[in-house]
């Protein structure tokens, strides 16, 4: 393909589609979107809770949203990144409504705001508990009207890099394996929940964008922080149906197998997830209970959840619901500045795949859709302005360093330290043979998920992480001969292995507990470790 695209967006979630719409409609860019499923099949559509924003535009309300986000991030949020999020968020929600997104309203016609865990006030707009699906619906319609190229069911294998610049991707699809070239590439590929055996993420969430960046030596930060949602329905289905935080925001209670409450249901997700795991271990149980029997008009207020429960044969008005933590959201990712620039010219990142500095060690509930809506369009604005490299802003400051030397310990600035990680083990060399069977590849994927769940999940230890590292090394050897690397099923396991290797290395290096990263052998935070581990980006300059 000739160099005909101004912008190629990888991924079809809120970050990528928001960016694609803005690029095409406001800047007349020739924009393409490439996604490995259909355009509307992204993790965004699974988001239930809503979008957090101080829609009143009251400065005190905005500052309160900022304070809640910083508190959840456990000392690793970038203050300027959070300020951008909370200041620009209300306008981006209004943009989405203008595109046709319909959110719940009260009897006066005002947006109906909910409160979720970690939020001090009600500020979450929602569409029942199918907010992600409504956001996705509005954006997909807009992209289909404006993009010049849409590549569905196409799998991006690796970045195309020429003279240190990203110039597109190598992708495989119905027409075989071919380069897709563009002047700029925006990675908006979502997270890697499929790294774990139990997740709320769809099967497509295999860390593809993050893995491509790691292999291309693009700087990645905070890889150890992965959020587990505390209340996934404890059934055999995968992905696990999510019992939205909105239920607890409206009064649902967590109870152990004896019927006793054991945690404040509205604490941040990492705290609630660990409390649930601790109680499950103490009681030798596979789940705890969510008691929603006191919620009025459940079917009308939470129709999507009610349908899921009906399918499972559960009646929330009469019985408690079995719940347990499940892998939910990648808090770190490809390091970017506040404009979405990465350490590689021509390559941008936004949404869950990116580390802007907003999440820190733990994402505040319902900030994820907002982050994509804010930072995806910011990348487009930067491209339109002719910017072609990172600035010392946001998480990128931890990568590029501070001109006047390391910040003082009491400073809000967060230094970065390099972490050497070999992510080449699973890269096939030459022509790899075809896999013996899909079941053999599925077995490799299952082993990887089991390893990560046992040793790198809600609770970790140095000993367990060392076991995970050894197991991943062996899996890497086996993956080299698992099949041709342009077979999407092989590429997905390769990507999960790449991201898992980075996560385990960073978790081993962080000998403390902070946010979503809990080490049983180092149960307290350590102020001397209030920094970001940076993987890759060795040639980064500013």
Structural commentary:
This protein has 542 residues and is of the alpha/beta class. Among the domains are: 241-324, Succinate dehydrogenase/fumarate reductase flavoprotein, catalytic domain (Flavocytochrome C3, Chain A, domain 1, Alpha-Beta Complex), CATH 3.90.700.10; 416-535, Methane Monooxygenase Hydroxylase, Chain G, domain 1 (Up-down Bundle), CATH 1.20.58.100. It is built from 14 helices and 19 strands. A five-stranded parallel beta sheet has the order 5-2-1-9-16, covered by helices on one side. Strand 6 (155-162) and strand 7 (165-173) form a beta hairpin. The longest helix is centred in the last third of the chain and has 22 residues, at 488-509. It starts with 6 loop residues before the first strand and ends in a 7-residue tail after the last strand. The model is unreliable at 429-436 (pLDDT under 50).
Give me the secondary-structure topology.
Elements: E1 7-10, H1 14-26, E2 31-34, E3 51-52, H2 59-72, H3 79-99, E4 124-125, H4 131-146, E5 149-151, E6 155-162, E7 165-173, E8 176-181, E9 185-187, H5 208-215, E10 220-221, E11 226-233, H6 245-249, E12 253-255, H7 269-283, E13 288-291, H8 298-301, H9 303-311, E14 321-330, E15 333-335, E16 347-349, E17 354-355, H10 368-384, H11 396-400, E18 416-418, H12 438-455, H13 462-479, H14 488-509, E19 532-535
Parallel strand pairs: 1-2, 1-9, 2-5, 9-16, 15-17, 18-19
Antiparallel strand pairs: 3-4, 6-7, 7-8, 10-15, 10-19, 11-14, 12-13, 13-14
Helix pairs in contact: 1-4, 1-10, 2-3, 3-10, 5-14, 12-13, 12-14, 13-14
């Amino acid at each position: 393909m000739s160099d005909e695209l101004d912008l190629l967006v990888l991924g079809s979630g809120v970050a990528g589609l928001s960016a694609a719409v803005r690029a095409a409609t406001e800047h007349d860019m020739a924009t393409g979107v490439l996604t490995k499923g259909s355009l509307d099949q992204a993790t965004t559509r699974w988001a239930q809770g809503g979008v957090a924003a101080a829609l009143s535009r009251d400065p005190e309300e905005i500052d309160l949203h900022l304070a809640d986000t910083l508190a959840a991030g456990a000392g690793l949020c970038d203050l300027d990144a959070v300020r951008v999020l909370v200041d620009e968020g209300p306008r981006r929600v209004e943009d989405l409504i203008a595109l046709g997104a319909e959110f719940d309203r009260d009897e006066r016609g005002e947006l109906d705001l909910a409160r979720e865990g970690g939020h001090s006030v009600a500020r979450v707009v929602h569409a029942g508990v199918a907010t992600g699906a409504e956001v996705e619906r509005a954006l997909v319609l807009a992209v289909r009207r404006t993009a010049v190229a849409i590549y569905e069911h196409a799998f991006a294998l690796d970045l195309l890099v020429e003279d240190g610049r990203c110039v597109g991707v190598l992708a495989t699809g119905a027409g075989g394996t071919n380069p897709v070239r563009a002047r700029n590439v925006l990675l908006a590929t979502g997270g890697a929940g499929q790294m774990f055996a139990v997740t709320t993420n769809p099967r497509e969430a295999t860390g593809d964008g993050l893995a491509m960046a790691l292999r291309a030596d693009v700087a990645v930060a905070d890889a150890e922080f992965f959020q587990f949602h505390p209340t996934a329905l404890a059934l055999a289905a995968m992905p696990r149906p999510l019992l939205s935080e909105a239920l607890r925001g409206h009064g649902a209670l967590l109870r152990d197998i004896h019927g006793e409450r054991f945690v404040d249901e509205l604490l941040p997700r990492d705290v609630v997830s660990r409390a649930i795991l601790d109680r499950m271990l103490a009681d030798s149980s596979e789940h705890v209970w969510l008691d929603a029997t006191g919620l009025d008009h459940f079917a009308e207020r939470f129709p999507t959840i009610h349908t899921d429960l009906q399918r499972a044969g559960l009646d929330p008005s009469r019985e408690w619901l079995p719940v347990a933590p499940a892998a939910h959201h990648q808090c770190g990712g490809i390091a970017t500045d506040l404009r979405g620039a990465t350490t590689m010219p021509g390559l941008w990142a936004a949404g869950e795949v990116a580390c802007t500095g907003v999440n820190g060690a733990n994402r505040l509930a319902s900030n994820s859709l907002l982050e994509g809506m804010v930072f995806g369009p910011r990348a487009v604005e930067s491209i339109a302005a002719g910017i072609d490299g990172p600035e010392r802003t946001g998480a990128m400051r931890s990568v590029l360093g501070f001109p006047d030397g390391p910040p003082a310990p009491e400073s809000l600035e967060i230094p970065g330290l390099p972490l050497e990680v070999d992510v080449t083990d699973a890269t096939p060399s030459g022509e790899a043979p075809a896999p013996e069977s899909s079941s053999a590849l599925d077995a490799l994927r299952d082993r990887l998920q089991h390893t990560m769940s046992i040793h790198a999940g809600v609770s970790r230890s140095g000993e367990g992480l060392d076991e995970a590292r050894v197991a991943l090394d062996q899996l890497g050897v086996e993956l080299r001969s698992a099949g041709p690397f342009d077979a999407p099923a092989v590429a997905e396991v390769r990507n999960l292995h790449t991201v898992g290797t980075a996560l385990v290395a960073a978790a081993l290096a962080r000998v403390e507990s902070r946010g979503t990263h809990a080490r049983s052998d180092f149960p307290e935070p350590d102020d001397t470790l209030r920094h970001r581990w940076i993987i890759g980006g060795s040639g980064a300059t500013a």
